[in-house]
Design a protein that fits this description.
Two copies of one chain form a homodimer. By secondary structure, the first copy, chain A, is mainly α. Chain A has a domain of about 110 residues: Winged helix-like DNA-binding domain superfamily/Winged helix DNA-binding domain (Arc Repressor Mutant, subunit A). In chain A, about 65% of the residues lie in helices and about 5% in strands. Chain A has six helices and two strands; from the N terminus they run ααααββαα. In chain A, strands 1-2 form a two-stranded antiparallel sheet. Chain A is globular and about 60 Å long. Chain A starts with 17 loop residues before the first helix and ends with a helix. Chains A and B meet through helix 1, helix 2, helix 3, helix 5 and helix 6 of A and helix 1, helix 2, helix 3, helix 5 and helix 6 of B. Chain B binds a DNA duplex through helix 3 and helix 4.
Chain lengths: ~160, ~160
DNA sequence: TCACTATGGTTTCCCATGAAACGATAGCGG
DNA sequence: CCGCTATCGTTTCATGGGAAACCATAGTGA
């Protein structure tokens, strides 16, 4: 029950288009991860990202504002806000007043939040290992580097176009 | 006017998470492409994909149903339908009855559609070249192959989880 | 021929996401 | 101290995209 196309299509221009390959690969990976997180922790990807970053921050004894979360996750500030609200309602994140700036709060994981963090990170890392199991170390490194270059390139071209 | 974070965050677990890197790289590339297509042709990515596939089909003297378009683009059938409707309304695609199956139609590019196709493909290829300009041939090949493996891997893991 | 099921396509509904508008506070220049 | 502007966070609105329901036709078995 693999693929049952009526008649296999010959390799077309779309198939060989690298941005397309990148997009479908990324979608496949994201779907897998989203499914796993959702199934086991009822977390969506934005929420998980916030937990990951807050977990890091906690390890360094820091608390973060939504603004720094936005910078750290590269997500929209609205997405960050929504994720934080959900996590707060679930009791995984607490807000503390920021006496230097009345507009923002410092966010950190609660005890329960840290417990989730410690369950969730291994799942993330295991999934990463599953996905890249047949990549040797050099290939992983290569992949990372290629992704980073592409990303820089795209950002660069976009800002040139945006005038 | 590059990045003005209050205080640079140390490399965290999120930064080093490969699926995250994949996702943001893919997003950056997709945004760039979407922006360019939209600006110059008022086409969205799904519409462009349909044009690319229909252009291929036309080159082989074939016409496709929405079903085969769905298979060829890996998009949802609803997305394909919507894209086709838009293209039809713009006069870029025409439907011909399928006498073997009254439920579906054969779709093909109109003359105007082919004209767009021939303008749009060079833009796509140029963008691809822009993006991968500093990849040598071996790196491109490597990148393709890594993406394909990851994609297969993800699909494979997903179907195992789906029981 | 007559159900019954399967499938291509379409419509409807819902959720996720980002842009823009908004309120509140901060920061600055007078 | 008083305005003016910038910024953080929140809310509101518009759009995109997928899931499920739906319709019409095809295919199948009695």
């Amino acid at each position: 029950m693999g693929d049952n196309l009526d008649h296999a299509l010959p390799e077309g221009q779309l198939e060989s288009f690298l941005p397309y390959q990148l997009s479908i690969a990324s979608n496949a990976v994201s779907s897998l991860i989203a499914e796993r997180y959702h199934k086991r922790f009822a977390l969506k990807i934005p929420e998980w990202r916030v937990i990951a970053v807050l977990g890091d921050a906690h390890a360094r004894g820091a608390a973060l504002t939504q603004r720094s979360l936005t910078a750290a996750t590269l997500m929209d500030k609205v997405a960050v806000n929504r994720a934080c609200k959900v996590l707060e309602n679930r009791g995984l994140v607490a807000r503390a007043p920021n006496k230097d700036d009345g507009r923002s709060h410092f966010l950190q994981l609660t005890g329960e939040g840290r417990a989730i963090h410690e369950e969730v990170m291994p799942l993330a890392l295991a999934t990463e290992r599953d996905l890249f199991a047949d990549f040797d170390a050099a290939e992983q490194q290569q992949f990372r580097s290629l992704l980073k270059r592409i990303r820089g390139r795209a950002a660069n071209l976009a800002e040139k176009t945006n005038d």
